[in-house]
Amino acid sequence: MELKVPLLSSLANSSTSQDIELKLKANPNIGDLFTSFPANDSRSDIQSILKNLMRMKPDEIPIPFKGNCLQLTKDKSSFVFCSVEGRLGICNRLTKEVTNDVKLSDNGLYALALFNNDQYVFVGGKDAIIFKYRLSDFKLVKKYQGHEGKISEIFFSGDEKTMYTCSDDKSVRIWDLSDGSSEIIYKHNDRSLCMSVSEDEEWLATGGADRTVFVYDLKNKNVLQTLDGPTNSIWGIKFSKSKSMLAAGDNDAGCFIWDCKNWSLLRQLVGHEARVSCIEFLDNEKVVITASNDKTVRIWSLDHDRKEIVYTGHKNWIKSMMLSDDQRSIYTTSEDCRILVWKVPVNLDNEWKLTGHTENVYNCLYSQKRDLIFTNANDKKAIIWDPIKKVKVKELLHEAGIYAMTLTQDENYLITCTSQKQMIMWNIDTYEPFSINELSNVTVKAVCCTPDGKYYVTGDTENRITVTEYRDPSSNQERPVKYVFRKHKNTVWSLATTHDSSTLITGGEDGSIVLYDLNIGSEKGQLLGHTKKIKCLAVSRNDEILISGSWDSTFKIWSINKLFLYKTVTFHTGAINGVYFSKDEEYFIVASTDQKVSFWNYRDFSYITNLTFDDLCLAVNCSPDDKTLYVVEKSNIFIQENPMSTEKFGFYGPERSSQGIIDYIAKLINAEEVEHDPEMDKWLIAPMRMNAVHLYAYFNLQLHLKQAFHLGSPIYNSIMKRNPLSLCIERDFTDCANIILGSLEKKVNESPYSLYLVEDLLVKLNEKGYANLSEFYNYLIIPSKDITLPKFIDPLASLPVVLESNTNEIISDKFAPKEMYKNEGKSIQFWSSYVKIDTQIGSEASVNFLESLIDCPNPDIFRTRFIKVILNKKWETVRWIMRLQGLIYGTYLLLLSIYTTNFLGSVAFLAPIFAINLFLLSYEVFQMGVAGLDYWSDPWNYLDLTRSFTCVVYAVLLFIEVGLEANEKLFVFLTLLSWIRGISYFRLFQKTRYLIDLISEVFSDMTSFLALLFYSTLAFSLIFVAITKGEGDSFASYLTISYRLDLGDFDTAGYSTIDWIIFFLASVINPLIMLNLLISIMGDTYDRVQDGREISDLKELAEMVLEAETLLYWKRGLGQALYIQVLGEQEQTMEVDTWLGKVRELKLKLVTIHKSINNISITHTNDFKRLENKVDVLRSADKEEVLGKIEEMNKSFTAFKEENQKQMNEIKELLSKSE
């Protein structure tokens, strides 16, 4: 059942984040989320998300009509608003209750202003009259007449002696409030639609339908300036605080900002999609806020060219906007009958744009040594930037466009290659060209330097790669050519080298990639698959992975060592122009001309999220700490915080506005009925590196989880290594965990690398023992798909061979020498795990894994290849410890046997037995110390201690010659314990290992039988006593006779008739019936143990390995998680080819069908409920038709269920026949 937590339902009734937090703390379901948690507790992440969500989500105040104008009283207690329906309302800001609502006019009201400390309100509308009402009771006080069209705006002077208005009658009027007189100060050529008065009340500005802005000097009483530029009617206008700027918004979604000193156009803000009707400046005049008929509020930075912040939330036109006095809140009202209160962002420096190039930029390099950025373009410029100060440092001018550029290894020189066949080396200290090489008849399209500083490499239009020895230009030494390669068929567009400088990688116009060995100058291999030019190549920092980006809109991920294609990604729709690997190798970034920059998980090459830009993305890079992202956006360099490394909270995703994901998550947490939206799963929540799928798991939203996995939503570890599965385990949501395990099984076929998600969860998975766990474990180690691996090996080779590796790439030479592999012989197969596991003997991780494995509630995991390989590998390493122990104990038993038969009572011969016993006792004490309380969980340890102390007591008593008769009985007890303990050492041998479990199970199953046998034996003993009337022997002797009768001792001499009758009953019940009952019980026990023999064997093996590893306490801090790789014989006969395997497979099919029916039943039930709810809501729909469809769906589900039941019955019948 899904957990429903009503979390944010109080948002609608709270006005501040503090109010919301108080209400949330009172909620018993989630109140604990507001306590302090350690960083390793998942609740700390959820707590942070909730608190930030409350701050980001706009506060909503419902109002009874479509808001048109909005004002806030001076005491900040109430909103006053009017509407196009002619109504005026007052709403308490804190309680969100409408305290007054009255209809003042049959025509619409479009202008509103508060007057005289909020005692009065002036309103104007279509009837061209300005009305003055007393605010307390809405009593009409006065009318101001003069306009002949709709009143558009009303303003008052600071002393409230003057009123300024504009109207659809084209006029702008000034009113004397003492007598109500007015005069027209100027007119527009069309409707006058908006007005603003500067704070010093010197200027007044208006905008009209004539697409003109008039600026009027109130002191000199003349039109100061007429401004053109807008292409349609002007609906919003505003002066900045200091009157340095004037902004106007028009009906074509444009916002124009003029410099009031010279009236030049400073900027045109482009982004809105409909009329811009409201404008506000922050007091610092660095930020302007606009609202529009496109239902958005946008926040623009004016001091630098950044992308605007977009707020979405209104569902209709925004008609009015104002700022709070502290400039921390934005108030908007809309025709959606709501007032929304938005938070002004505290930090607007998250994004920055560097402008300077006039054509497309080709490269963006970062000098870590100098903290500078270098860019080159076809505009004949290479520009050096300071990314910290966000300023241009220097322009390096060329005579032609610059196609290629790189830094030398020491970062002292910049190499540029132009379209005029020149290669120039620039001294970065002086910004002067140090050397200019004229290239003969070729244009260099790609250039790079090897990381060791030995070579620089060029790729040109003549399909040539030239490797030249690097010499510092200041040395004036000749730079000889080392190698020339010509493998490509035409232009070479991209170059890269491995970080160890051993391999050069080239990409050409023909779509091919070629690898060269720079040590010997030969070709290493070729990678084919792209259909168009290779524009970029990037090598992972460990030199294992190559990513190639092409103009065919794909990027491919290759193994450099194996020349093997891991994956082809078709996410982008434009050319791939840049790839960047993070320093921690957790992710990589891809830039494309489809205006997207995407982020990908390095471990399984899966999608995380993407950002959308305004123009072509031509290159990508990051700062040395990966915290700042640099994206070449056509001719500009866009700078912002890296979503994957930022420490600030935020939502990053495909859309410009994050309001959609904020609302979606709020509804999820608030347990509102919201359908799964896969687009919302694409958003990243920073700095946690979480997404909506993490929240589905945390709040036990099973259907959302199932759909997310089915649709391939991003699944990845958070910054604290949490993923949906770990959250389900931590929260003990079994159903969700089983859903994820089942989904990961299916995902393995597409991408086995996704199994990295469970690497840190194996111990917890074992402890939980989920139903799907054994099936899931079958996928943790799978056959390699690498077709380049050998298929045969020398028949004399010893197999299997198990290795550990830092990578899951299989290198055959590590398993056996090359000459061992043949074209025919023993057929082999390579296997590799796709999870790293610490199998270091004695390490803490290894011990914890073994303990969880032994205690796992799902023993079927022992049947999986993954567990078998691990246990057998460990046993090969530690078996000498257990065999040595067995040898010592065997010596002890041998000496004890000789002592018993030949030297009983000899103190001298007992001495070596006593010495070995002391050694074994010391071993037990050592085990107690290293194992702690876990020592007492093994029953054999109790037997060991008892035997050891018994031996000590016996030896001491024999030595001091005290209680010899009692000591003889003590020796009998010692001998019994010693031989019983010796049974356990048969675990060392595979053929007898399961017999230990069989003996244990037999004794366990015989408990009830022995009780019944004792009852019967006791009963017949009493009957024999009754026959003899208690005369003769004691009761003990009769009990002995009865017990011997059970064993077949039939002494019937002198029996009477009654004796024979009792004897007959006793012999039938005890020896015959009981014996056959015992045989039946033991037979059932044997069958059960035999069926689980494999599990029993491996569990015994795990316990012995754990015992050995526990001893190696000094290795607890060692260990490293590695992949497991296996070379074994090709399996000719799989388990399913045996009858037992077939039965097991049929049982698994039964379980699968049961799960399918249950899942479909759950889905059907939820769909049924949703459809019923929709029937209630859709009043205009034909209910009969909808109900008919529901009934039809119900019938189809019933038919499906019956068909599956039929299949189950057939399988059961087959199983019964097999028995």
Largest sheet: 6 strands, antiparallel
Into which percent range does the helicity of residues fall?
25-40%
CATH topology of the largest domain: Methylamine Dehydrogenase, Chain H
Over the alpha carbons, how many angstroms does the gyration radius reach? 42 Å
User: What is the CATH superfamily classification of the largest domain?
Assistant: YVTN repeat-like/Quinoprotein amine dehydrogenase
Tell me the β content.
25-35%
Helix/strand class: alpha+beta
Determine the number of helices (DSSP H or I, runs of at least 4 residues).
20
Detail the poorly predicted runs: 1-35, 1133-1140, 1177-1181
How confident is the prediction overall: mean pLDDT?
86
Q: What is the total number of structural domains?
A: 6
Which CATH class of the largest domain is shown? Mainly Beta
* Number of DSSP E strands: 64
CATH architecture of the largest domain: 7 Propeller
Distance between the termini: 38 Å
- Gross geometry: extended
If you had to describe this structure to a student in words, what would you say it looks like?
This protein has 1219 residues and is α+β, with helices and mostly antiparallel strands. The chain folds into 6 domains: 11-57 and 657-777, no CATH class; 59-349, YVTN repeat-like/Quinoprotein amine dehydrogenase (Methylamine Dehydrogenase, Chain H, 7 Propeller), CATH 2.130.10; 352-577, YVTN repeat-like/Quinoprotein amine dehydrogenase (Methylamine Dehydrogenase, Chain H, 7 Propeller), CATH 2.130.10.10; 907-990; 994-1094, no CATH class; 1141-1218. The strands form 16 sheets. Strands 59, 60, 61, 62, 63 and 64 form a 6-stranded antiparallel beta sheet that branches. Strands 1-28-27-26 form a 4-stranded antiparallel beta sheet, with no helix packed on it. Helix 15 crosses helix 16 (1035-1046). It is extended and about 145 Å long. The two termini are 38 Å apart. Mean pLDDT is 86; it is low at 1-35, 1133-1140 and 1177-1181. GO terms for molecular function: monoatomic ion channel activity. It is found in: Membrane. It holds the Pfam family WD40. It comes from Blepharisma stoltei. It is a multi-pass membrane protein.
